[in-house]
Amino acid sequence: MSNPIVIAGGGPVGLMLAYELGLAGVDTVVLERRDQPSTRSRGMAVNATVVELLTQRGLMETLQGDGFTFPAAHFAHLWLDPTRLPESRAFAFAVAHSQLERRLEEQAVKLGVSVRRGAEVVGIDQDESGVLVTVRTGSGEETVRASYVVGCDGADSSVRTLAGIDFVGTDNEFRGIVGDVEVATDDPLFAKLGVNQTDTGFFTVSPVGPDVLRVATGEFGAGTVAEDVPVDRAELDEAIRRITGDVSTSGTARWLARWNPPTRQAIAYRSGRVFLAGDAAHVHFPLGGQALSTGIEDAVNLGWKLAAHLQGRAAQSLLDTYHEERHPVGERACLTTRAQLALLHPMKQVSPLRTVLTELFHIPEVNAHFVRMVGGLDVQYPFRYAQLPETVAAHALQGSRLGDVPLTAGEPTSLGRLLHGGRGVLVDFTTSGAHSGQAGHWAGRVDVVAAEAAAEIDATALLLRPDGRIAWATSDDTATESSAAGLDAALRTWFGTPVG
Question: Which residue ranges does the record assign to the FAD-binding domain (predicted)?
Fold first, then answer.
């Protein structure tokens, strides 16, 4: 099939998907309705999951000079300590999402991805062999024939609407303003750095550059104002006074915008040849970076599956696993952010509960549970292979994703480095290479790596999917009948029929 994959939306999720497809050699076109790359960014951080997924592709290296690592996380603005996790995981990284978008576009274009700006999807007509996409540009309308279309075009997704996929949930009675303010060094806003929580709502202040502060107000129970209604400086000042009582600023607003996030999820992430990812599939209150991490992992989950199918290495059933795996994760993100909202308002009523939770967070196991939850690190897909008897138990690691564990495979490397090519990887920790031979029939799809045993990995061999998920693992030192059957089932399920 020579028609390209069309991605609607050139934000971080759409561009991450484009990178994944470009890495696999799939012809890909990104259609972005904005004429120019965004220079304004509501989001200023990426959580541990995003860092780890970018590390798997070598993309974090391109961002190192654009931001900084910070070992912190929160649940409803109650602080957690990621440094106390018993396992090694990435820390969050502070970087403007607009800069992440630029870096992803640079790398995707290097792989041959085409990014067209000022182009909006306004029509979709799909049949058994492809999708006819109507695109509106500054010079009129045109059509593009695509093999598949992926809507990464935000909460108001045109693709989702055109595909007839319901977006169910609730709107929050909430009014928010966000923007950047250029200030002098003695500005009163510096006294409010961090999160300021009151019974009315919250006010956050954080530095984003020399003499520039990012401010955000959030008022619960206030009348919602449509996001396309302009915000002026007077309205920002009044919102800050309502929340804090007396804080003002002498600074100059560089830009201001509204944010009024609902909690909604698409009932299906696929309709025939149309898929949804990121905010087009799920939106919720922006707490802990879960919106971006859930969307980026949507992209990483879907990209290799689309490529495998288009290149004749996988049946349609592989594409079905996208919704099966990612819809519950989106649902969970909506749930955990709603739980945090319940701890933010009304403050007079929830303060006792917040105090008790703060005490609980000092317990290592509780802290670890919540750090993994808000960082998107607790996701584990319930893989079951029909080829195996029910009596064959899955390894405890199956379906999970590990951090960038250091390894020695002839030379120093890591799990993340092994995944840079976007292929599957069989890592054999046995000195005899007991589990390596089976993967030989999937050459070009699965790399085989002999590595020294790693204390952080409680297994003698792992089969990693291109997205880093552990498709199979064993603790057997030799290739037993059970372990061989499990590995064969995993290889066939995720990487198609063997060759030779």
Answer: 4-333
